[in-house]
Amino acid sequence: MNRSDAERIRTVLNSMGYEESDDEDDPDIGIKGVVSCSVRQKAIDRVYGRIRKWNAQRSRRSFLTFLTGCVLPVDQKKFRELFDIVFPIDTLMDFPDMICHYGVPTPISSLARPVPKRVDQNKNAGRIENFWSIKPSYTSGIEAYVPIQNGCNKFCSFCAVPYTRGREVSRPSEDILSELRQLVENGCRSITLLGQNVNSYGLDSHELSFPELMKAVGKIGVETQKRFWTYFTSPHPRDITRELLEIMACYDVLAKQIHLPLQSGDDRVLSRMNRNHCMDRYRQVVQDIRRMLPDATLFTDIIVGFPGESCEQFERTAEAMREFRYDMAYIAQYSPRPGALSSQWEDDVSKVEKERRYRALNEILRSEAMKVNKERIGKRLTVLITGRHRKEGFLTGYTEGRIPVKIKGSSMGIGNFVDIVVTSVKELSIEGTAMASTADQAS
Question: Which range of residues forms the domain containing residue 73?
Answer without folding.
Answer: 2-101
